[in-house]
Design goal:
The chain has 612 residues and is mainly alpha-helical. The chain contains 33 helices and five strands. Helix 17 packs antiparallel against helix 18.
Length: 612
């Protein structure tokens, strides 16, 4: 019995938990503790002060004890120790001690799961890849199906593409709701939106209460038209998680509930979800639970214009995921810093093209161009924004990313307005009209919040010269932002409203509103908006150049030619080519037009030309 105890302890490792050692030996408590006590008195083992673990006093003794075990006994102890401790080290040892190919492949899949929990993603992927190779060569469809379900998509094209392929191969042998669900999840991460929608529906129809099927459906349907289904699915998941004690399931359900709440702008209800989410994260192995809690807190702080808190929370979240090399880090950082910069000013790093390199992550293939155009337009670099926007193609050709649909439409409307793409503004405004009453959100567990839909509608209306509609929408946006406790978006709406008043010639109202809004903008540290508010705040009378004269054209013939091309969405380079002038001369003409008309951007030139 003493030999068994020392051999089992030696297999477990340099330090061994006594509860694990007793489980391996299946000894009665009194007999086990007596045997341990005897080895401690003999000086072979050292007992920790709390009595919970022990270790060999001499490493050479441990190695001798392990080497003295028959291989079959040692292999059995390795597998049982791995099952008890469920970590990478012991599953790796179990794989090494198992000669039978099918069993070895299954042990590799257990190793992969442990590696994911430990944040060792390369180890996890390699282990499953080897198991799949065995399943293909044997062939062994059961191992193939188990392998296809071992990993979850994470936003890295090779990883997600392999999962999708493994599911496809496994489904050729047998149909399974779980395999359909995992294939749908991978399709979502690979940007195959239509496939994800159809396959997730199949999975839910086959197994309405399967957790994987529900997860797949949530990923595929997190758009503005899915709020009711999303909330109902979230409630089911929370109930299952609570009743079974599955903290991971409950957390997923609460994340989905938060997604639905963002669309209604219920920041108070989102805040009440943080405590149970934090509790769930504390009961889940690995960093993923804490990541979701921190990112939800970051988004909430941003919505409330608590920018310093948002930066600190984001940095904490990124640090945890960077340590394990998770591919979601870069996208989450860029998207969040873009929102921070929108109200506080964009950094040189975010304005650099290097920040927008996403490798093979297809979800960012379109989004990177559009969101970068938004950042450039925010920074006043309109020609660069126009070039980035034109690379996106026509709106009717864009991929329909359901979870980000509303967010991308709102961003696109703002960019199109800034660069004078009037036709696109009309098209995007029509799409946004059907979203009135919602808030602009990019969902599916990674929330990006851009205020009320009416804010983007007001920007669109102003760009189109529909000033009455712009006043109505921006007034509503300011009121709704204040009602939910989002002061940054209220400042933005009031600033834009003051600019519309000035554009309409109501300089007294423009100046009064800007002056009233300016103190809050300064308090919140919204530097770009402080600068914009300063212009109407100083306005006291209409500029004769700010509105077209019926008596005489304020523009020279050449300037009118340039203005017409601006209204068509042409960049300075395109204007130069069309008129056979230098790009610098084209830029000067545009600046003279802005000065003469009292405008701030090209969209206002386009709107003015449409009224002519």
């Amino acid at each position: 019995m003493i030999t068994d105890l020392l051999g089992a302890a030696a297999v477990v490792g340099e330090r061994v938990r006594l509860d694990v050692l007793q489980e391996l030996l299946a000894m009665p408590s009194d007999e086990f503790l007596s045997a341990v006590d005897a080895q401690v008195r003999a000086g072979t083992l050292v007992l920790a002060h709390n009595g919970g673990e022990a270790w060999f006093a001499n490493e050479a003794v441990r190695r001798d004890a392990e080497a003295g075990l028959p291989l079959v006994v040692r292999a059995d102890l390795c597998r049982r120790a791995a099952a008890a401790l469920d970590d990478v080290e012991h599953w790796s040892a179990a794989v090494a001690m198992t000669p039978e190919p099918a069993e070895r492949a299954r042990l590799r899949l257990k190793l992969a799961k442990a590696a994911v929990r430990a944040g060792e993603l390369k180890t996890a992927h390699a282990a499953v890849t080897v198991a799949v190779a065995y399943a293909r060569s044997s062939p062994d469809p059961e191992v193939l199906a188990e392998a296809a379900l071992t990993l979850e998509p994470i936003g890295e094209s090779t990883w997600d593409g392999d999962i999708h392929q493994w599911c496809t191969e496994a489904l050729a042998h047998r149909r399974s709701a779980r395999l359909l669900a995992r294939q749908s999840q991978a399709a979502t991460y690979l940007g195959r939106w239509a496939e994800a929608l159809a396959t997730s529906q199949e999975a839910v129809q086959e197994a309405p209460d399967d957790l994987d099927a529900l997860t797949a459906r949530q990923l595929a349907t997190s758009g503005p038209d899915d709020v009711d289904e999303l909330a109902a699915t979230a409630q089911r998941m929370i109930e299952v998680g609570v009743s079974t004690g599955r903290a991971d399931v409950e957390l997923r359900g609460r994340l989905w509930r938060v997604d639905a709440l963002w669309y209604s702008g219920d920041l108070a209800a989102i805040a009440t979800e943080l405590a149970p989410m934090h509790s769930c994260a504390g009961r889940i192995d690995g960093p993923h639970g804490h990541w979701h809690v921190l990112m939800t807190r970051t988004s909430l702080a941003l919505a409330r214009a608590e920018f310093d808190d948002a930066v600190a929370l984001l940095d904490e979240a990124l640090h945890g995921f960077r340590e394990i090399g998770h591919p979601a880090v870069h996208g989450a950082e860029i998207a969040t810093r873009m929102l921070i910069g929108h109200h506080r000013g964009h950094t040189a790093e975010l304005l650099s093209p290097h920040a927008w390199q996403f490798g093979t992550d297809v979800r960012w293939d379109f989004g990177a161009r559009l969101v970068r155009a938004f950042v450039l337009a925010d920074a006043g670099r309109i020609d660069e924004a126009a070039a980035a926007y034109q690379r996106c193609g026509r709106p009717d050709s864009w991929p329909r990313m359901r979870a980000a649909e509303l967010l991308l439409e709102a961003i696109a409307a703002r960019v199109a307005a800034a660069v004078g793409a009037i036709g696109d503004v009309r098209e995007l405004r029509a799409k946004l009209e059907g979203r009135r009453g919602r808030y602009v959100v990019g969902g599916a567990g990674g929330t990006n919040f851009l205020g009320p839909v009416e804010l983007s509608l007001g920007i669109s209306a102003a760009a189109l010269g529909d000033l009455d509609a712009a006043v109505a929408d921006l007034t509503t946006a300011a009121q709704r932002s204040r009602a939910i406790g989002a002061p940054g978006f209220a400042v933005e709406a009031d600033c834009l409203l003051a600019e519309v008043y000035a554009k309409a010639g109501d300089f007294a109202r423009a100046g009064a509103l800007a002056a009233a809004t300016l103190p809050l903008a300064k308090t919140l540290g919204m530097t770009p908006w402080v600068a914009r508010l300063g212009k109407p705040a100083r306005a006291s009378k209409p500029s004769t150049a700010s509105k077209p004269s019926t008596a005489a054209d304020p523009l020279s013939p050449r300037e009118r030619e340039v203005a017409e091309l601006v209204a068509q969405g042409s960049s300075n380079r395109e204007i130069a080519a069309r008129l056979v002038i230098s790009e610098r001369t084209a830029q000067n003409h545009v600046q003279h037009i802005l000065t003469k008309l009292g405008f701030a951007n090209r969209a206002q030139i386009a709107a003015w030309m449409s009224r002519q």
